[in-house]
UniProtKB/TrEMBL annotation:
PANTHER family for this protein: BLR8064 PROTEIN (PTHR21716:SF61), TRANSMEMBRANE PROTEIN (PTHR21716)
Domain of life of the native organism: Bacteria
Subcellular location: Membrane
Coiled-coil residue spans: none
Principal cellular location given in the protein's record: membrane
GO CC, one annotated term: membrane
UniProt similarity note: Belongs to the autoinducer-2 exporter (AI-2E) (TC 2.A.86) family.
Pfam family of the protein (one): AI-2E_transport
Protein name: Putative permease
Keywords: Membrane, Transmembrane, Transmembrane helix
UniProt keyword Membrane, yes or no: yes
C-alpha cells in the first residue's frame, strides 16, 4: 500500500536533530566528568586516607564547632583553635606512649643482655604448680637458667637488626606524620568553609538522587557521630576504668597499658588480649589476686560495653540493627584499617537506608516501595 502521509517538515527535523544532539552532549559531559573524577582520584590516591580522615574529624566535631561559633561569633581564629585542639588530642597521648615505649625498649635490651650472661631465674610460683611442679621445675632449670641455651635462642637479636628496624619505624613515622598534617589541613579548610561545603553537598545530592539524597547524607553523618560515641568514647572509658584497676593491682606500666587498652577497646572484643596480657604479667609477679581482679573487672567492663552501651550508642543514632553495625566495624577495619572504623558503619548505614526505602510499605496504596510506579 502507498503511504500518503506528508513528509516531515524542516522544523520537525531540526527539533529532532537538536534533541539528539543535546542527548549526545549530555552523555559526553557525563563521561567526561566521570573520566576527570577517576583520574583525579587516581592522582590523589596517596592522600585519600588523609582527606578522608580530615572529613571524619570535621563531621565529628562539627556540632561542637557550630555551638562555639554561635556563642562567640564567626572568626578566622576559631578553625585554627579547633584544628590545634584535635592535633593535641592525638599528639599528646602518642608522645607519652612513644616515651614509654622507648624506655621499655631500652629496658628490654638490658634484660636481653642480662639473660645472655646469667639466664632467667626460676619464679617462685613454678615449684608450686599443681600436678606439674616437678616437670616444670626440671624444664626451667634445663632450658631457662642456662645462659648458653638462651644465647642460642636470642642470637637474632643483634645491633644490626635493631638498626634496620629503627630505620623502618622512622620511615613509617615520617609517612604517617605527613598524612596526619594533611588531615589537619583538610580539617582546617572544612571548618573554615563548612557552611558552603554543606550547602553544595546537599544541593549536589538532591540533583543526583532527588529527595532521598539528603536523607542518605544525614544517615551517613549520623553513623559517623554514633561511631565516634560508640567506639572512641566507649574505648576511652574502658581504658580509663582499666587504668585505675591496673594501678590498684600494681600492674607494670599502668598508664601505658591503659592507653593500649583504650585503643584496642575501640574495636569490639579486641580489648580482651590486652587485659589478658596484664593478668599474665601480674601472675608472673606472683600476684594471683591482682590477676584475678584484673580478669574479673575487665570481663565485666568489656561485656557491658560491647553488649549494651556500644549497640545503644551506634545503633540508636543510625536506627540500624547491631549486626549491621558490627559487620560495618569489623569489615571496615579489615578493608580500610583504622579509617574503616568510621567508613564501614557509614557505608552500612547507607545500605540499610536504601534497603529500608526499597522494601517499605506505601501507606496510601498498601504496596511496596518498588511497586509504586506500577
Amino acid at each position: 500500500m502507498t503511504d500518503f502521509s506528508p513528509p516531515p517538515s524542516p522544523d520537525t527535523i531540526t527539533v529532532e536533530a537538536s534533541a539528539s544532539t543535546g542527548t549526545i552532549q549530555r552523555r559526553a559531559r557525563g563521561f567526561l566528568a566521570l573520566f576527570f573524577v577517576a583520574i583525579g582520584l587516581y592522582t590523589l590516591k596517596g592522600f585519600l586516607p588523609a582527606l578522608l580522615w580530615g572529613c571524619v574529624f570535621a563531621i565529628s566535631i562539627w556540632p561542637l564547632y557550630r555551638r562555639t561559633e554561635l556563642r562567640f561569633g564567626r572568626s578566622d581564629w576559631l578553625p585554627m583553635v579547633f584544628t590545634l585542639a584535635v592535633a593535641l588530642i592525638f599528639l599528646v597521648p602518642v608522645s607519652l606512649v612513644g616515651v614509654k615505649v622507648a624506655d621499655e625498649a631500652r629496658s628490654a635490651l638490658e634484660w636481653i643482655d642480662d639473660v645472655r650472661n646469667n639466664g632467667i631465674p626460676m619464679p617462685e610460683w613454678v615449684p608450686h604448680l599443681p600436678f606439674l611442679s616437678a616437670q616444670a621445675t626440671n624444664w626451667w632449670q634445663n632450658h631457662m637458667t642456662s645462659p648458653q641455651r638462651l644465647s642460642h635462642l636470642l642470637h637474632s637479636v643483634d645491633v644490626g637488626h635493631g638498626m634496620q628496624m629503627t630505620k623502618q619505624v622512622g620511615s613509617q613515622l615520617a609517612r604517617r606524620g605527613t598524612l596526619f598534617a594533611f588531615s589537619l589541613l583538610t580539617l582546617f579548610f572544612l571548618l573554615k568553609d563548612g557552611d558552603s561545603v554543606i550547602r553544595k553537598c546537599l544541593l549536589g545530592s538532591q540533583r543526583l538522587f532527588g529527595e532521598q539524597g539528603e536523607s542518605l547524607a544525614k544517615q551517613m553523618i549520623s553513623s559517623v557521630h554514633g561511631t565516634l560515641a560508640g567506639l572512641v568514647l566507649v574505648g576511652l572509658g574502658e581504658g580509663a576504668i582499666m587504668g585505675i584497676v591496673y594501678m590498684a593491682t600494681g600492674a607494670p606500666q599502668p598508664l601505658l597499658f591503659a592507653m593500649v587498652t583504650a585503643v584496642a577497646a575501640m574495636i569490639p572484643f579486641l580489648a580482651w588480649p590486652t587485659v589478658g596480657l596484664v593478668a599474665l604479667l601480674l601472675l608472673a609477679k606472683s600476684s594471683m589476686i591482682g590477676a584475678i581482679v584484673v580478669s574479673a573487672v575487665g570481663s565485666v567492663v568489656i561485656f557491658i560495653a560491647d553488649h549494651f552501651i556500644r549497640p545503644a550508642l551506634i545503633g540508636g543514632s543510625t536506627k540500624m540493627p547491631f549486626l549491621w553495625v558490627l559487620l560495618g566495624i569489623l569489615g571496615g577495619a579489615e578493608t580500610w584499617g583504622l579509617l574503616g572504623l568510621f567508613l564501614g558503619p557509614a557505608i552500612m548505614a547507607a545500605l540499610h537506608l536504601l534497603w529500608t526505602l526499597w522494601t517499605e510499605v506505601n501507606p496510601r496504596k498498601g504496596v511496596y516501595a518498588e511497586d509504586k510506579g506500577s
